[in-house]
Amino acid sequence: MFTRLVESLGATEKLSAVFSDDSVLQAMLDFEAALARAEARCGVIPASAAASITEAARAEGFDTAELARLSLRAGTPAIPVVKMLTARVRAIDPAAAGFVHWGATSQDVADTALVLLLRQTRRILQNDHERTLAALRRLSEQHAATVMLARTLLQPAPPVTFGLKAAGWCAAVRRGWDRVSSRFDEALCLQFGGASGTLAALENRGLAVSEALKSELGLKLPDGPWHGYRDRLAALMAALSIYTASLGKIALDVALLMQFEVGEAAEPGGDGRGGSSSMPHKRNPTACMLALASAKRVPGLLADFVAGMVQEHERAVGGWQAEWPLVYGIVQSAGVALESMAEVSEGLTVDVARMRANIDSTRGAIFAERAVMMLAPELGREAARQKVEQAIEDTGMPPDLPGLRTPEDYLGSAEAFRRRLLEGDK
Amino acid sequence: MFTRLVESLGATEKLSAVFSDDSVLQAMLDFEAALARAEARCGVIPASAAASITEAARAEGFDTAELARLSLRAGTPAIPVVKMLTARVRAIDPAAAGFVHWGATSQDVADTALVLLLRQTRRILQNDHERTLAALRRLSEQHAATVMLARTLLQPAPPVTFGLKAAGWCAAVRRGWDRVSSRFDEALCLQFGGASGTLAALENRGLAVSEALKSELGLKLPDGPWHGYRDRLAALMAALSIYTASLGKIALDVALLMQFEVGEAAEPGGDGRGGSSSMPHKRNPTACMLALASAKRVPGLLADFVAGMVQEHERAVGGWQAEWPLVYGIVQSAGVALESMAEVSEGLTVDVARMRANIDSTRGAIFAERAVMMLAPELGREAARQKVEQAIEDTGMPPDLPGLRTPEDYLGSAEAFRRRLLEGDK
Amino acid sequence: MFTRLVESLGATEKLSAVFSDDSVLQAMLDFEAALARAEARCGVIPASAAASITEAARAEGFDTAELARLSLRAGTPAIPVVKMLTARVRAIDPAAAGFVHWGATSQDVADTALVLLLRQTRRILQNDHERTLAALRRLSEQHAATVMLARTLLQPAPPVTFGLKAAGWCAAVRRGWDRVSSRFDEALCLQFGGASGTLAALENRGLAVSEALKSELGLKLPDGPWHGYRDRLAALMAALSIYTASLGKIALDVALLMQFEVGEAAEPGGDGRGGSSSMPHKRNPTACMLALASAKRVPGLLADFVAGMVQEHERAVGGWQAEWPLVYGIVQSAGVALESMAEVSEGLTVDVARMRANIDSTRGAIFAERAVMMLAPELGREAARQKVEQAIEDTGMPPDLPGLRTPEDYLGSAEAFRRRLLEGDK
Amino acid sequence: MFTRLVESLGATEKLSAVFSDDSVLQAMLDFEAALARAEARCGVIPASAAASITEAARAEGFDTAELARLSLRAGTPAIPVVKMLTARVRAIDPAAAGFVHWGATSQDVADTALVLLLRQTRRILQNDHERTLAALRRLSEQHAATVMLARTLLQPAPPVTFGLKAAGWCAAVRRGWDRVSSRFDEALCLQFGGASGTLAALENRGLAVSEALKSELGLKLPDGPWHGYRDRLAALMAALSIYTASLGKIALDVALLMQFEVGEAAEPGGDGRGGSSSMPHKRNPTACMLALASAKRVPGLLADFVAGMVQEHERAVGGWQAEWPLVYGIVQSAGVALESMAEVSEGLTVDVARMRANIDSTRGAIFAERAVMMLAPELGREAARQKVEQAIEDTGMPPDLPGLRTPEDYLGSAEAFRRRLLEGDK
Fold first, then answer.
1. Catalytic-labelled residue, pool A8, A48, A182, A276
2. For chain A, how far is it from start to end, CA to CA, in angstroms?
């Protein structure tokens, strides 16, 4: 249940277990077993056959390496899986062998298996999401009054609070997961249509078997088979990608704050983290880096998925067969980003003094707009603006008015926005 | 209000009008005028200044070519727009000039203008969506009993009805727009945060001005300024891309059905459509082609948008400045695809006889699965399967059993799925 | 040495062996051993240390699962590899342990290992390329005189020869590999710069060790360390992607020709190929489908790679750490496409009679342009054109002039182009 | 000849002129005129007709807005252009009208026009490339001895010289253009194949006319018509994208050096540059930002182009019709990035004192590796390493050995690499 070295920076252990050969195979076998039981319940196949198929449908003992090899030949893992399963069923109950995969098509098992695997990933991702959300909320509350430089185009700007910054992160994470969650709700539905999407082999019992099958698997029954319609999966992939990109934004902010010259925050480091093979002194933004690397991988994977949606007729030639590695890549990228940013959020070190020192080091430059406002009542706005601009031209700073450089006095609606962001837009 | 030649296959006239220089400029000016009125209502600036700014904020007479040139220098269109607007206000009311853009930052006007333009595009897209949806529903109802070949991996498969096929198209279109519509709801919100996203220049009146401003513009007030958070826009771009890809899937199906060798359907042709400069005989799938070309452009534009979401601190250096051409490209692609497929859906010619003839020409090969089922009661399933496979090996066809090749008798749940698809999953 | 089930349609067995844990680890160990020997040759470390390091640097017995786990923690596989290797060296020669990885940085070993793996993939890809190229050339020669319909926008057009079509495929394959090959030449170079890209730890012997090291490994010495410069790899990824897309074009042509209604060509089928789990009669374009699926995956992977090139300073935070799965995905996609199309090219069945029958079935419609030319000498061009257009409007066909419908007489420069394409542009 | 507001941050004035309606139309007319002359030279059409067509083929007076409208209907700009041109020819020489576009197909004129436009862009891009290359070389020479921090993962690392850094930039620019240039050489070739790519309408004179036509236009004659083969264009798009990404890397480095807290370099600012609408004090990295925005747009556009390469038969339905806006977007992005970075390179301010001060402010932390080396002769390597690591654990710094912190003494092969990078790998 481990990750391969070639993708070791882009896959978590837990998600690798979900997409391990045994787990993928078991998801396919779960479909076949549930199908047999559903068909038995509807009187399509004998109950004894369903029992035998269920008994045989356990991943242990299958030669998954051989399965992978045969899948490439067949162009789908479903054909060799059904063949191997049938052989196992035949060994224990010859009469049942003919009922394996009855009325189904390869894509029914492949797609439903993918859906079952995605349901597992949802729980894993949700756990790290909730850790992250809670930690960012705590950071925001703790630092509601911690002033720091805003930075726009990487240049200093009038102050914000770190609480506001963390609230922005928190809100992005919440919005991101809300979309992911509703897209999971939409996408976790049964695929079952048979050869042409009509369930013709089941005659007039297609819908009844579909109902029974979705209950067996705990999935939703969609409006119809979706062999050629990948929009629900695409919408889920898009939501995961967008969420991952939002995590990347937080990671970038933290990595920038961790710069030696800025020094306002640091990710926790700890066990095996942040070292350098040539520079023992370094405290690297390793977790942020992993989240950033993940955010760099999702856009293209998403593009490929969306491009692949343009599929031929009832089942495509290439479009859907391209999907599994794309789904895998997006899910793993989201997983690494979430696991990394949960760790960062929970262990972030904040240097409140350095934040204030960095404001002070700008020697008032960021308060130019405020200086205009302070001078305006006396001089009029235009004259105030000219006076400030002249001072900046001469000295690089606005005039040093009393109280001008007190960041706490120039926060505007920062606290109001912070609270709104933590609450969410309704 | 016309499209440029270099993008003439990728832009509609109506959407080109929305994104014309005058329209883009007016959207920016609308923000500035609404801001002035909102600030006047809140007592931040004099009412007379708001009136003068509103009066001056009309796109007529601005030198938009010069504006575009200055925008590239400034790195944002907002700076030259504000400067030109200020000059106009000064000309009619010198005292008001200092209140232009008061408390706002460049990205406030740029982002809100984009949102206002997107609101206009929504109406245009929705109109073509509704045309398409209604036409596909009609096609599905008309052809509920029209049998045709299913095709999987571009090979013949057991029959479906054209009504089922059109219902699948219809459902994809409906699901696509539902997502687009809910993402428009989410994304059409005000951007207003000032230099650092705190509205510090407005002191404690930031939220009040925000409320007044969103009312002036008829937009939602989000949880906070979103200068560095592009997820709402990204989610809208994703929904539009996915919808466009679904339209591309329909276009591909139609183009494949229009093949001379298949000949089962044809797009309407008509005024200026479908010709060839060298082959006067040709009836090209021109509208489908345009939809397909659109579907080929959205994935990468979406990828760029999502990649651009990883933005630095309170305002990014490059990420959001990359957005306008991406949004423009996605919206135009969606628009061309919708306009094209509305035309195709409303004017599609269906050759019912050819559909049946194509089934017949397979001489039963697609009914192999059915032959097994017909023989099973007598021979048992395994023997039936073997007999059919032997026949196929010998003759390329299953045994010619009575009634085997009647497509109407092998439609399974086609009609049930058709009705579900037209209703939608709830 | 097998592929995982989740990517079984997107990975070949041979390339999976190259990117197996043992192989990836061995490539990293090869770097460390070669580095030690190079440093010994230059007098930087003792010869005995180099011998011990070389002895220990064998992948057997390393716990690669643990390595993968530690890599995610460390943010690079290099740190745990160096640590494990050092422990092994210490066990056999304590004095040598301190010389492991001397003067190098993590990215030196990671990048050079990737280059060594890419060199292995080159041979595998080249073999399938040469098979494909030769087979397409044979097809072109065999069918130099086989007439068939051209098809533009999926509609019939004046005839071509299948020899010309195959020559077009062949030329695309040759151009594709030429670019891949020259990009391999460029990209297969040593990475060696130490912590900051100056090899400071080696004092003034950095270049000498570099020279020795590249000789040990059989790589080129580049202009300088390229930790933050990924353009050579990007250019290779682009060339592989473009080549894969060209293979996808061929696969699409074949899949379209294999349509039951067209029936002009078929891929070979054979062992485990082309079946259907629900439709025993089907002959699916399975190999073409795999190539098409590969072509659908490369564009986004390439986009991610290029987006990742925008890297910070001497070593990036996220950009290069995203690369391995992208490189892996592109190489595997190219490999699957090549393996598939080699098989298709070598075993393609061509139905010469059906090609002619399909021409005939257009009943002259494709010869409209020719009819104008035949009538022009007598009627003048304008009158000829009008007459033909009138006939098409009336009957859907041009006038049936003697010889008009003989495809062999309307091939223009088909044979001349065929020969040029087989020769290549110089 | 100006850019539109919606893309004003993503298009240069010079390239906008190349892709203006008049220029695009003229390129198409140039093809038609050259074709007529070539055919006259080969005796295919009368010399008088060629003269009349050449006379009429001037963009002045064409209604390009109407052309754009008709292009969307026709699915290609070629059809309405040929129709309008024919009408113009008829007005001055009725006998010549029938010879317009003789033997050519829509894609011949569209593709060759694109090639002619790309040839114009090459000159514009090359000019800015040469400016950039020369300026970076100067910077490298001037600062061969200027020490500064290296930064890896955004953390300080042992010193480099700014000369080395600039040499790395310079080499990337040179490699980037070398690839672009060779891909231009490959891609700037004639498209001429007629309806099916056989030039059948020209009977046996197709190659002769091709030769004459390529000479008229000053283009190369490729191995054959390439209507369905877009690999040469794709390779050019890839080279331009990769070059743009390398410029983005330089822009990111400069923007990071410009951070207030770092302050080691600054782009020139100047006319209209670097301002802020709300913060008069700011000196923004505006030019770098534009280059970064460009680098963010190219990956997806490239992905779309490569995905579009999978084209049907002799001419595709959607694939090539998607190309123009993609090519336009990539070229403009490259143009903006080059124009911006030429300006940045030529005007970059370097703060040598700040660079040294930033090294000093690390108080030796970056010299940990060096401390090990200095202590090793006395203590042995292992003991030296332990002593340094202990010191770092205790104080965050290595022991303060004499000369340890002199950056000039720890530059290794920096100068050697700098010279190699300026020379290029051969």
1. A276
2. 41
Other Cβ atoms less than 10 A from the Cβ of B242: the count is 30
Distance between CA D75 and CA D403 in Å, rounded? 72
State if pTM tops 0.80: yes
The DSSP H or E segment spanning D23 is helix D21-41
Mean pLDDT, chain D, rounded, equals 95
Closest residue by Cα to residue D345 from D124, D127, D126, D131: D131
Closest CA relative to residue B289, chosen from A409, A151, D73, C32: D73
For chain C, list the contacting chains (3+ Cβ pairs, <8 Å): A, B, D
Q: Which of D152, D234, D313 sits opposite C314 (nearest CB)?
A: D152
Picking from A5, A24, A116, A252 by the largest number of C CB atoms within 10 A of its own CB, the best residue to mutate is A5
Measure in Å the smallest separation between the Cα of B341 and chain A Cα atoms: 14
Q: Tell me: the pLDDT tens digits for D302-322? A: 999 999 999 999 999 999 999
Work out the number of other CB atoms within 10 angstroms of the CB of residue A319. 23
> At D144, phi and psi to the nearest 5?
-60, -30
- Residue D379: both structure tokens together: 């203590």
Portion of chain D with pLDDT greater than 70, in percent: 97
* Three-state secondary structure string covering D197-246: CCCHHHHHHHHHHHHHHHHHHCCECCCCCCCCCCHHHHHHHHHHHHHHHH
Which of A44, A151, A161, A231 is the best substitution to test chain B (most B C-beta atoms within 10 A)? A231
- CA dist C280 and C274 (Å) reads 10
Query: Is D71 a known active-site residue?
Result: no
Q: What is the pLDDT of residues D56-107, one digit of tens each?
A: 999 999 999 999 999 999 999 999 999 999 999 999 999 999 999 999 999 9
Phi, psi of A113 (to 5 degrees): -60, -45
Cβ atoms of C8 and A323 closer than 8 Å? no
The residues that bridge with B155 in the sheet, in sequence order, are B152
Average pLDDT over chain C reads 95
Number of neighbours of residue B338 by Cβ within 10 angstroms: 29
Q: Which of C170, C198, C257, C421 to mutate to test the interface with D (most CBs of D within 10 A)?
A: C198
Contacts of A64 in chain C (CB under 8 A): 5
Tokens of D22: 């008049």
What are the φ and ψ backbone dihedral angles of D150, each rounded to 5 degrees? -75, 160
| DSSP track, A274-288 | S--SS-TT----HHH
Of A77, A76, A75, A101, the residue nearest A88 (C-alpha) = A101
**Chain position carrying tokens 């006889």:** B353
Q: What residues have CB less than 8 Å from D393, skipping those under 6 apart?
A: none
Calculate the alpha carbon distances from A389 to A120, A320, A397, D189, D269 in Å: 60, 61, 9, 56, 17
Overall residue count recorded for chain A in this entry:
426
pLDDT at D385 over 90: no
Phi, psi of B340 (to 5 degrees): -70, -45
A295 touches C at CB < 8 Å = yes
- Quickly state the pLDDT bin for A273 (edges 50, 70, 90): confident
**Which of D261, D368, D398 is facing A358, going by the closest CB pair?**
D261
Asked if A377 reaches chain C (Cβ–Cβ under 8 Å), the answer is no
What stretch of H or E contains A96? helix A94-97
Q: How far is D308 from chain A (nearest CA, A)?
A: 10
Contacts of C218 (CB under 8 A, 6+ apart): none
The angle, 0 to 180 degrees and rounded to 10, between the axes of the packed helices D286-307 and B323-347 is 30
Measured between beta carbons, the chain B residues lying within 8 angstroms of D77 are 5, 8-9
Q: Which residues of A touch B413 (CB under 8 A)?
A: 198-200, 202, 204, 206-207, 210
Burial class (CB in 10 A: 0-12, 13-18, 19+), A221: middle
Q: Which of chain A's residues have a Cβ under 8 Å away from the Cβ of C98?
A: none
